[in-house]
Amino acid sequence: MIAGHVCQDILPDGGLGLGGTASYAAITALRLGQRVGLVTSAGPDLDVAQAFPGVEVACHPSAATTLFENIYLNGGRKQILHRRADVLECAHVPPAWRRVPLVYLGTIDQEIDPSLFFCFDQALIGVMPQGFLRRWDGQGQVFYTDWNPPEAILRRINVLVLSELDVPDPDGLVQDWGRFIDIIVVTRAARGATVYRQGESCHHPTRPAQQVDPTGAGDVFATAFLIRLAETGDPCQAARFANVVASFSVEGWGMTAIPTRRQVEDYLDTTLEV
């Protein structure tokens, strides 16, 4: 199950595209052969169920759909939050879904209420805290902010995926939060990912890719990592699998290049034979 805001992104031509961690995660899980439930909130302008064929959707009606604008200048990005849907709470999760084995809380704009961390009976809970690390001013311009969750929330997280592009000191957070969280993964863009568990670590380089669009690669990685971890129990094997999934995803625009499981397994089988 995935929880987070499905958002619309303003495109360079003025049109709107589908975006957000929850969107990338849902499509990734679907293409990897999973049954997918999506808990989100959106306005009347977006039919979420129609936008995600094959995904079971629980959409809390909101006055507006979350809307982001990304402006790229001189190698940097200015991000503006124009609209924001309602915060997601445990009450928005269908009762039957609270017994699922795997949950990804994919935040983009502080939309995950603390109650969601305690909503599930025995789930493996994964978090990519990108949205907890954002604040915005009165004009909607987004800035970095620290996230200081209480120990009770940290202990409810089984897997935390951090991007070194999102936080100034990811390795420091590994030291601080590793006391409470079993597995922490730091993604390092084209250099791969490092998995930390109980004081030990393993690093996996990524598959060489012809990058077209890196948007959502971290979300794709986190989703694939959780799925493979649930299947194997091996975080290092999960990182290798997730690196391959994410590397394929950047070779096309938006969500178009997110691979199927067959594509990933064919690649892994080929490289293991070499």
**Domain unit count:** 1
What's the total count of β strands?
A: 15
CATH-level-4 superfamily name:
Ribokinase
The appropriate CATH architecture is: 3-Layer(aba) Sandwich
Instruction: Give the biggest beta sheet.
Output: 9 strands, mixed
- Count of separate DSSP helical elements: 7
What fold name stands as the CATH topology? UDP-N-acetylmuramoyl-L-alanine:D-glutamate ligase
* Strand line-up across the major sheet: 5-4-1-8-9-12-13-14-15
The CATH class is identified as Alpha Beta
Radius of gyration: 18 Å
User: Low-confidence parts lasting 5 or more residues at pLDDT below 50?
Assistant: none
Secondary-structure map:
Elements: E1 2-3, E2 7-10, E3 16-19, H1 21-31, E4 37-42, H2 48-51, E5 56-61, E6 67-73, E7 76-83, E8 102-106, E9 124-128, E10 134-136, E11 142-144, H3 151-154, E12 159-163, H4 170-177, E13 183-187, E14 193-197, E15 200-204, H5 217-232, H6 235-249, H7 261-273
Parallel strand pairs: 1-4, 1-8, 2-6, 4-5, 8-9, 9-12, 12-13
Antiparallel strand pairs: 2-3, 6-7, 10-11, 13-14, 14-15
Summarize the structure.
It is built from seven helices and 15 strands. The chain is of the alpha/beta class. A hairpin with a 2-residue loop joins strand 14 and strand 15 (200-204).
Write up this protein.
The protein is α/β, with parallel strands linked by helices. The protein has one domain (2-273): Ribokinase (UDP-N-acetylmuramoyl-L-alanine:D-glutamate ligase, 3-Layer(aba) Sandwich), CATH 3.40.1190.20. It is 26% helix and 27% strand. It is built from 7 helices and 15 strands. The protein has helices at 21-31, 48-51, 151-154, 170-177, 217-232, 235-249, 261-273, and strands spanning 2-3, 7-10, 16-19, 37-42, 56-61, 67-73, 76-83, 102-106, 124-128, 134-136, 142-144, 159-163, 183-187, 193-197, 200-204. A hairpin with a 5-residue loop joins β2 and β3. It is globular.
